[in-house]
Amino acid sequence: MRWRTAMAWKGAAFTVPFFAGFALFTVVPVLMALSKSMYSTRSSGLGFGEPVVTFSGLENFTRGLTDGRFWGSMWRVALFSVIVIPLIQVVSLLMALMLDAIRRRLAARFRLALLIPYMIPGIVQTLIWIYLYSPVVGPLSPFFRWFGLDVNFYSGDLIWVSIGNLMAWGGVGFTMLIVYGALQAVPAEIFDSARVDGASEWRIAWYIKVPFVRRSLVLVSVLSIIGTLQIFSDPLLFRSMTPETVNKDFTPIMMIYNQAFAEGNFNYASALSIILALVVGVVSAIFYRLTNRAPV
Amino acid sequence: MPRTTDRWLAGGLATCLLSVLAGCSGGGGDPAGSGPVEIEMWTWNTSTQQVVDKFNATHSDVKIKFVKQADNPTTATNLRNAVAAGQGIPCLVQNFGEVPSLLAEGLLADVTDQLQPHLQQFNAPAVKGAEVQGRYYGIPGGAEPSYMMINRKVYDQHRVAVPKTWDDIIAAGKVFKQHGVKVMNLAGEDPSTLVNLVMQAGGSWYGVKGDSWQVGFTSPESKKAANIVQQLVDNDIVANQTYQDRPALIAYFDDGKMVSLPTNVWQLGNYEKNFKKSIGNWQPIDLPQYADAAEFTTPFHGGATLVPKGCANLKEATEVGVWMATSKDAIEASLDKETGAYPWPGTIPDPAPYVDGSVPPKLFGAHKGEAVGVWLKSAKAGKDSWVVGPNYTAVFKELQDQWALAVTKKITFEQLLDHMQKFTVDDLKAKGVNVAEA
What we know:
The structure holds two protein chains of two kinds.
Chain A: H1 2-13, H2 16-37, E1 39-42, E2 52-55, H3 59-65, H4 68-101, H5 104-119, H6 122-133, H7 140-146, H8 159-184, H9 188-196, H10 201-212, H11 214-229, H12 233-241, H13 252-262, H14 266-291
Helix pairs in contact in A: 2-14, 3-14, 4-8, 4-11, 5-8, 6-12, 11-14, 13-14
Chain B: H1 2-25, E1 37-43, H2 48-58, E2 62-68, H3 72-85, E3 92-93, H4 99-104, H5 112-115, H6 124-127, E4 131-132, E5 135-136, E6 138-142, E7 147-151, H7 152-157, H8 166-177, E8 184-185, H9 192-200, E9 206-209, E10 212-215, H10 220-234, E11 238-239, H11 246-254, E12 260-263, H12 268-274, E13 282-285, E14 298-299, E15 303-306, H13 314-326, H14 328-333, H15 371-381, E16 382-383, H16 392-407, H17 413-430, E17 435-436
Parallel strand pairs in B: 1-2, 1-3, 8-11, 10-17, 14-16
Antiparallel strand pairs in B: 4-5, 6-15, 7-12, 7-13, 9-10
Helix pairs in contact in B: 9-10, 16-17
């Protein structure tokens, strides 16, 4: 028994690097944010004296929960997510199914090509597209004008389409790869027996392949929800090009960033961060609950 | 054998983790011992290195340690972190905001006693950039003269006279409009045109009455300024090109489709280098005035080199800052050897000896000789009526958003002013600051 305990401890010891990092870079900052969010910095007189930090309990949270701008940005991003995430999943699934249908060696080449956008850092992706979208120097506007279409990718009507297209371009390769990986794990005998039974390739795809990759789809969807609700660098760079469309509180993280680093209001920013984390957590949990049932 | 490897791996990992932990608590020792006093300076301006080298070569009791920062926002974040942590605080920092707002954030040190003996070395309006309520919190940084440059060729082509007033600009814009040319550019992210017009009208958005702030977004001067910008926008005579997309902007300006540009001396090198079609067609002219202006006035609102709270050597920091801003040695060391231009010495009473080199050789063509006269006249006419309140950082961010809406006609400038008045008063109140209702 003692030997077993020792071995168990030894095994557990291997998780120490992870937990130490997790504690240091996740738990501690969360606790610090939580404590910061309970305080408020207040000035007095003309506002030039030493600001006083006082305990304000849940005041910052009450303010955050009733802040129209914050929730406005939250709804804006939520609406965007509802459209763009399923779209990316469907496109990725279709691409994975097509890859799966062709010969392996050919598939390997496409796989790499489709993954390249994902390998490019997010900021660089955005810079590339900002150039492509630019109505002045980019090639896309003249291209559409050729067909008699006056398209401005920075206008209020198109800004989310522009950002969504950028996200899809960068994210499809990754999602497809995960789904493709799951497809590879499906035992080949099932397909063989389906073919013997006379099932067409379409039926095989829809009734066998898709149910088998459902878990993977749920996983990448949850990751997408988390990532999209926290969207930041893309709109921030778009803001520099089109501030009349993308305002400073366009997405929740942009508002938090602005509060913390432009206005120096760390207390309120901490409270908003915690609210956002809770929203992301709850949404992800609900989605997971609703979708992650065992395949029928 | 694999066991040993595992052990080594685990040990290595543990060491890495420990060193990460140690990294958090170490560092930041103050070298207050014997030897010269070291003044750490943060800027994102690489050319400062030359000036620092000159100082270190000519001084033995004080040395400057030059720490290059990435850019304006990074400097702001780093300084906030350093002051919050109470260690690693520099003694001089390139200006990244307005002194009163940074003071209200608790970032700045009071250097009034140290700066007082040097004040006569600065020109009068420059000094205001470092002042809050009669005390000083940095080294005055001065400002560049405001003037305008116009594409004279296009003006002549459409027989439009050189504008002297803002009304002339609006009238010119209506003529240019018929030819598909915009008279000015109002970038969606940059409300400085409005700010400068308010300053030129002698107004300010903040004022102090007793121990309370008075917010003046709806003052007559603000409305006068808003009226000009509103006409520019309503008549569709201005462009909205962003300053962020430099290549696009330069190409647009160069194209002859936008013909008047309020500008600074430091930006000329960029135009000189990148204008292809319009090089030589531009003319520097006096900044347009209000039609009812009593005297020639240009806005002059300087900043300051910041002295952060927690700097251990205020006296030496001030001396270094004053030397950098006003001494002959420092100005001469700042010469850009490639262009032969000095950065505009906006702090000293007489900038005349240092301005000839700033005239770009080709940009102004036949009007090259007029540049220095225009600049010096503007520098002399500079007035600083501008008072900044403790929440100007937040207010300016909000103003940017409102400005973007107003230049794209989603709201009027009158609505912008009303919104900003309310926002500013509410924000001051929320921060616990006294505000008197107007």
